Amino acid sequence: MAGTAADLVRALSASVRMPFSTVEAYALTLSRIGWWERTKRGRGARKKTDRDAAKLLLAILSAGPTDLPNFFLQYANMHVAPGQKHSKLVAILRREMELAEDAKFFDFAAAFVRLYRLGETGRVIWHSPMPEGFYGEGAADVPGLEMRVKGPVPMGTFTFTLAHSVVDELTADGDDQADYLGPQKIEFVHEFLGMMADAKADGRSTEQMAFGNAYQAVMSEASGVGFERFVGGSEFAAVAAAMSEAGE
């Protein structure tokens, strides 16, 4: 059987060039805190889902397995940045990726895994295949995507070049096409900042103040050296391929 936890760990470890045991440590931590089935091998191992694969992709962006529980909760639940949440671009992406209006960072990650698995990234991502061997021996030519996280105050982005169909829809009412050419970023912020913006938009002043104070506390307690980590389209394609084989 393909598409099990062990298959995902194996595929991702090969893509990011980490030892199997290192990536498995993240999976085991996800299992220990109840977010993943244990990485059983052979008979009885359950096929994983798009969301399971997205959990592992996000997990390896933490500082390590011991950091994972707190990291995962903060980064998985990030909101689309207030300046983009109600934009036409984000609305199109949510529609094409079958996401709810309140979709969080993790929901987008899982939806991207699904598009890679189904071979439907072209719904939102532009990709022009290159001749075999163009990127060097063994290099994958896959649709480009970057999932990046920053800290210590949680922030995140998805960066990719928009599919022509998305650009056409965005410019149908006269917007300048040049604004949507090249890599585009969908930005995410800590959930308290997102909830504060929602409360402000709805006129809920008491909640706005409460979420604002909570976000200030997050910023005050953030410590340590700033960091940025990311995974790319190759990693999304690797876990998607591991699951696709399960259905063949």
Q: Strands across the major sheet, in which order?
A: 1-4-3-2-5
Secondary structure class reads alpha+beta
Mean pLDDT: 89
Helix share, percent: 40-55%
Instruction: Give me the count of strands.
Output: 5
Strand content: 5-15%
Unreliable spans: none
**Any idea what the shape is?**
globular
Note the main sheet. 5 strands, antiparallel
Q: How many structural units, i.e. domains? A: 1
State the order of secondary-structure elements, H for helix, E for strand: HHHHEHHHEEHEHHEH
Taking the alpha carbons of the first and last residues, their distance comes to 10 Å
What topology does this entry show?
Blueprint: H1 5-16, H2 20-32, H3 50-59, H4 68-76, E1 79-80, H5 82-85, H6 88-96, H7 105-118, E2 146-151, E3 155-161, H8 164-170, E4 183-189, H9 191-201, H10 205-221, E5 227-232, H11 233-244
Antiparallel strand pairs: 1-4, 2-3, 2-5, 3-4
